[in-house]
Amino acid sequence: MAEHAFASAPAWRTGISAQEETDRCSCDLLPQIPGLSWRTGATPCAPGSLRTERPRGAHPDAHGCRRPAGMADGRYTGAVSQPLAEPPHLPPATEQQVRSHAVQLVTLAARHGITHLAYASPGRLRGHIADDRDLFDMFEFQRAATTLLGADIALYSDGALGNDHVSPDLAAATAL
Amino acid sequence: MSPDARPDRHALLELQALLAQIAVLRSEGDADRFTADDRYRWVLHRLWIAAGNEALAWTQATGQPVRADRTWANLYDLRNHLAHSRLSDIDESLVRRFTWARLDTLQATTRHHLQTRP
């Protein structure tokens, strides 16, 4: 069984050249964090794996190590991640758009356990999220409200009003 | 460098690993620590932001709009909320409630997708 010498001994003791040292995968040198499943449950790179880029992701099988020829390779990913393309953004909803749909917005909010809806600033509303609801309810309301108005809406919980230095528009939001 | 051969699986593996790390952090804390320890909260924020990025990556890899499916849409909107809001405008009690209540379901969903897309 091949020894993963890179992790345990310097190059001068293992006979590995400086270039080989540079190319060798270092995923086993990542910080050992107790309890992390990707250190204990997933398969780390094989000894002698060659590095094509530094491991960046959270999962070792997705970071892009290249194993030497002839070694079994159970990975599905290549060397680089794909850049993410953000979906297009709508303009923020104006106060006029929000107030002209106030009844519909309040009704919509109630379906998601949200009350005390208030206009803060363009694209920003404030509301109270019921104790048995959470952020997913808030986001589902945001998307429904955005669809209703054809303009972007972000909802902020009035629970943030107790924070130091909360934004003035949220503090001064006026009820719909 | 070669392109990602399986970007869909790449995104799911990353998401699974990130959710596992959130689960570890959750097990190491409680409501009191979440309230008192800023850095504990901010690490959770960062992991949720990364999870939202993987939700976006997954939907792009599978050719669907990020807001077409409720789970991925919510993770993406969570990313936007945590990444784009000033910290003082975030209701942290909602982040805590969400982390404690929704994580297990999200892990199960990710596992299901990994099993059905070998």
Give your account of this protein's structure.
The complex is a heterodimer of chains A (176) and B (118). Chain A has helices spanning 5-8, 11-14, 18-23, 37-40, 95-100, 102-111, 135-149, 168-171, and strands spanning 50-51, 65-66, 114-121, 124-129, 154-157, 174-175. Chain A is of the alpha+beta class and 176 residues long. In chain A, strands 5-4-3-6 form a 4-stranded mixed sheet. A two-stranded antiparallel sheet of chain A has the order 1-2. In chain A, a hairpin with a 2-residue loop joins strand 3 (114-121) and strand 4 (124-129). The N and C termini of chain A lie far apart (71 Å). Residues 1-54 and 63-78 of chain A have low confidence and may be disordered. Chain B is mostly helical and 118 residues long. Chain B has one domain. In chain B, helix 1 (7-28) packs antiparallel against helix 3 (38-61) and helix 1 crosses helix 5 (92-116). The longest helix of chain B is centred in the C-terminal third of the chain and has 25 residues, at 92-116. Chain B is globular and about 45 Å long.
Spatial gap, N to C terminus of chain B: 24 Å
SS element count, helices of chain B: 5
The CATH topology of the largest domain in chain A corresponds to: Beta Polymerase, domain 2
Q: Tell me, what is the CATH class of the largest domain in chain A?
A: Alpha Beta
Distance between the termini of chain A: 71 Å
Strand element count of chain B = 0
Write out the strand line-up for the largest beta sheet of chain A, numbering strands in chain order: 5-4-3-6
The rounded Rg of chain A comes to: 26 Å
Q: Provide the low-confidence segments of chain B as ranges.
A: none
- Rounded average pLDDT of chain A: 71
Q: How many β-strand runs of chain A?
A: 6
Rg of chain B over CA atoms, rounded to whole Å, is 15 Å
Largest sheet of chain B: none
How many domains comprise the coordinates of chain A? 2
Shape of chain A: globular
Structural class of chain B: mainly alpha
Biggest sheet descriptor of chain A: 4 strands, mixed
